[in-house]
Design a protein that fits this description.
The chain has 114 residues and is mostly beta strands. It has strands spanning 6-7, 15-18, 31-39, 44-45, 52-55, 69-70, 75-82, 89-98, 103-112.
Length: 114
């Protein structure tokens, strides 16, 4: 499950986190969860800003983390690899979104439960 599913304030865009389906991970194996990010109409994700997940407890992540993948200007996916035996991990997904006038950086609160 993901905490902080939607960020929407005034002139800011709808930046939505698309929750991953339950992974059914084995406790002895590394687990991958894909978190989708979607910018609302009139906004796009900033390709010049490195989107990344920063865990509150870094030891709960596997050492090799994949880069963010853009599906198009408004949608992308961050795969997060959890270390073997991890039951859940919280952190922030750092993302930048833009409209025609400016770009902004946000940190979206995320909790991943495999």
């Amino acid at each position: 499950m993901i905490a902080g599913l939607l960020l929407a304030c005034g002139a800011e865009p709808d930046i939505a986190l698309v929750p991953p389906p339950p992974a059914g991970c084995e406790p002895t194996e590394t687990c991958e969860l894909a978190v989708g990010v979607r910018a609302g109409p009139g906004f796009h994700l900033n390709r010049d800003y490195p989107v990344r997940f920063v865990a509150d407890a870094a030891d709960r992540l596997a050492s090799d983390q994949p880069e963010f993948t853009f599906a198009d200007n408004r949608n992308g996916t961050q795969v997060v690899r959890l270390a073997a035996g991890t039951s859940s991990v919280s952190g922030k997904l750092k993302v930048s979104w833009c409209n025609e006038e400016a770009c902004h950086i946000d940190e979206l609160a995320v909790t991943l439960d495999p």
